[in-house]
Design brief:
Blueprint (H helix, E strand, L loop, with lengths): L19 H19 L4 H14 L1 H4 L3 H4 L6 H19 L1 H13 L3 H16 L4 H18 L5 H14 L8 H16 L14 H22 L10 H4 L6 E5 L11 H5 L6 E8 L2 E3 L13 E6 L1 H11 L2 E4 L4 H4 L7 E6 L11 H4 L1 H5 L2 E7 L2 E3 L13 E6 L1 H9 L4 E2 L13 H16 L5 H15 L13 H19 L2 H10 L7 H16 L4 H18 L4 H13 L9 H7 L6 H26 L5
Antiparallel strand pairs: 1-4, 1-5, 2-3, 2-4, 6-9, 6-10, 7-8, 7-9
């Protein structure tokens, strides 16, 4: 990636003319912000769209095809790709799960210990493994810890996400945001050596990260725990939690029913009718999936998921009678019955993202029924076949044990409970730990750049059997890679057209009534607010060039401004869409949008002060 000098177009605000090139870039930024915030398209698709538009509009954006696709070969993109693969290798060994189980044994039913263990495990681990997969791994562990310890999962899952974000500030490799910010800083620094910008060292900002993590932990253990709601009951009954009582019914097939002799698919498989047959009971024997070709006989009991109106219609037309009140979850889905009820969270990179249940053929692939659908805090209990699935959506799924095992082992899903059937490569733990240690230590000692050590770590994991070659491609969250590749050229355009300098001068004008540290705080707050509605990676791409320009305009330390933007983008607590880990806990915690604002806003404001003061103390604000 080639950044032009930050000094280009850095004049006083009044003497910086607004050009057509700047207006085009601003229009593209506005388009990107709208699409990121509304999620009309997946974020990676939006990023690629912006990249294509930058190249098509080259006369104004000054982005050549070579610069447009340079994000794919950018060291930050390759490093993030390698770190995602390394994180999967760690996951395959089961070491995080083992730590989580020991954590559960330590915590027991003591709520304070449960919270301390959640924060104390997820935070430090996230400093050395990308924090997104850490949360994906720990969601089922923490969920079970909460229920076994008679605590609402809602009291632990937001702290899990927040702690992983705080832990991501401990080292360079804690988040993809840090890696991307480091690369942007290095590129700008190479163009303008006088700015003193350089790539981050592995532990360069660890001293500040430790303070941020400590302050965040104290907040979560004291104020935060009081602000957290108890959305999900400790004694979990998923039927009650999703208010499904009115949507589940047992009906008996009488002797004169026209359904007798038909298969389940022929009788009740009409796509126009919102009804699912969950189970067929015949003389005490229970049949679950697959039921489509099962022939209905007299006196069979069918367990249905449908709304009251559809149920009444089916009973009238087909001559069915109610068997009585639906049993509770414990009665209905007990272990001896060959079906299990679980929540399944959709992570980024899942093949279901952007699909519907109908178009994805989810039921056919996994012999599983979806009973309810939670999206962005809203629970949909009927007619959800054509609802488009987004990252963080949660499905309430009924599946037989063999299908459940396939779901657990599939990277496309996060099953919100642990299951003993999953096997890990525990014998490879020493190799995995040694490889991660090498990936961390070698760049820290300046033996190799992080991109080299990370790629070498991937090769080492293959050679030692921690990962299989066939697992490499499924380990990568390709939407993250395409997002990075797509937004990096936007940062180049900001620089080359002078748009970054113009925005930087606009913010720098606040120096007429604010000290330099106040301008630094403004950038922290602006980045945090921006990250609350768009991707954290997109935030650093947009804000770092502007922050550097502003710092140069007021004679401040550019590195301090880069750090402020980086930390702010990594600690966006106020909305569930501000950071991917928040989406992972959104559904299993039963949270509403306002829960994140209530708990996250005070923490974000507190850390804005702590971080800015810490930067001023360790690195100074003035040159």
């Amino acid at each position: 990636m080639s950044f032009s000098s930050v000094s280009v177009a850095v004049q006083g605000l009044a003497s910086t003319p607004v050009t057509a090139e700047m207006l085009v870039v601003f229009a593209l930024i506005l388009l990107a912000l709208v699409l990121f915030a509304t999620e009309w398209f997946p974020i990676d698709v939006t990023a690629i769209l912006v990249m294509v538009l930058l190249m098509v509009l080259e006369p104004w954006t000054q982005i050549t095809p070579q610069e447009g696709i340079s994000g794919f070969a950018n060291p930050a993109t390759i490093t993030v790709l390698a770190m995602l693969i390394l994180s999967t290798g760690i996951n395959r060994t089961g070491i995080v799960q083992l730590i989580g189980r020991r954590m559960a044994a330590f915590a027991g039913t003591d709520r304070r210990k449960q919270l301390a263990a959640t924060v104390g495990v997820s935070g430090p681990i996230s400093g050395f493994i990308n924090n997104t997969p850490v949360v994906a791994i720990l969601v089922p562990v923490i969920n079970d810890l909460a229920h076994n310890g008679k605590t609402s999962p809602s009291k632990l899952l937001i702290p899990l996400s927040f702690a992983s974000m705080l832990g991501g500030t401990l080292t360079l490799i804690g988040t993809s945001t840090n890696i991307l910010a480091s690369d942007i800083a290095a590129q700008i620094g190479s163009e303008s050596p006088g700015l003193g910008l350089h790539a981050f060292g592995m532990f360069e900002f660890t001293k500040l990260g430790v303070i941020v993590f400590a302050v965040g932990t104290v907040y979560l253990m004291t104020v935060g725990v009081r602000l957290l709601p108890e959305r999900v009951p400790a004694d979990e009954d998923l039927v009650e939690e999703y208010a499904l009582q009115e949507f589940l019914a047992d009906v008996v097939v009488p002797t004169n029913s026209p359904l007798i002799g038909k298969t389940v698919e022929e009788a009740l498989g009409d796509d126009e009718v919102d009804i699912d047959v969950l189970q067929l009971i015949r003389y005490g024997e229970r049949f679950s999936e697959p039921l489509a070709r099962k022939e209905i006989r007299k006196n069979d009991t069918l367990r249905l998921r449908t709304d009251r109106g559809t149920l009444k219609h089916i009973m009238d037309v087909e001559g069915l009678t109610l068997s009585g009140s639906p049993p509770t979850e414990d009665d209905r889905y007990s272990a001896e019955e060959e079906s299990v009820l679980v929540e399944v969270v959709i992570p980024s990179g899942s093949f279901l993202v952007g699909e519907t249940l109908a178009s994805s053929t989810f039921r056919q692939r996994y012999d599983a029924n979806v009973l309810a659908f939670r999206t962005r805090g809203d629970v949909i209990r009927d007619r959800f076949e054509d609802v488009r699935i987004r990252v963080g959506d949660t499905l309430l799924v009924q599946a037989p044990p063999n299908s459940l095992t396939r779901l657990v082992q599939n990277e496309d899903f996060i099953v919100a409970h642990e299951f003993d059937e999953v096997t890990y490569r525990t014998e490879k733990i020493p190799f995995a730990v040694g490889i991660i240690a090498g990936v961390v230590v070698l760049p820290a000692l300046n033996v190799f750049p992080i991109v080299v050590s990370a790629l070498a770590g991937v090769v080492a994991m293959i050679f030692t059997g921690v990962l299989k070659p066939t697992e490499l491609y499924s380990s990568v969250e390709w939407n993250v890679i395409f997002l990075l590749a797509g937004v990096i050229p936007l940062g180049i355009a900001l620089q080359q057209t002078g748009a970054a300098a113009l925005l930087g001068d606009a913010v720098a004008s606040t120096a007429t009534f604010l000290p330099a540290i106040g301008v630094l705080w403004v950038f922290y707050l602006a980045t945090g607010l921006l990250t609350s509605v768009i991707s954290n990676n997109a935030s650093v791409v947009l804000m770092i060039p502007v922050a550097v320009s502003a710092a140069q305009s007021i004679g401040a330390n550019a590195f301090a401004f880069v750090l402020a933007v980086t930390f702010a983008a990594s600690t966006a607590f106020m909305t569930p869409v501000g950071y991917q880990t928040n989406l992972f806990v959104y559904g299993p915690g039963g949270y509403t949008f306002s829960d994140f604002l209530r708990v996250g806003a005070p923490l974000q404001f507190l850390l804005s002060i702590v971080t800015v003061l810490g930067i001023a103390f360790f690195w100074g604000v003035r040159i």
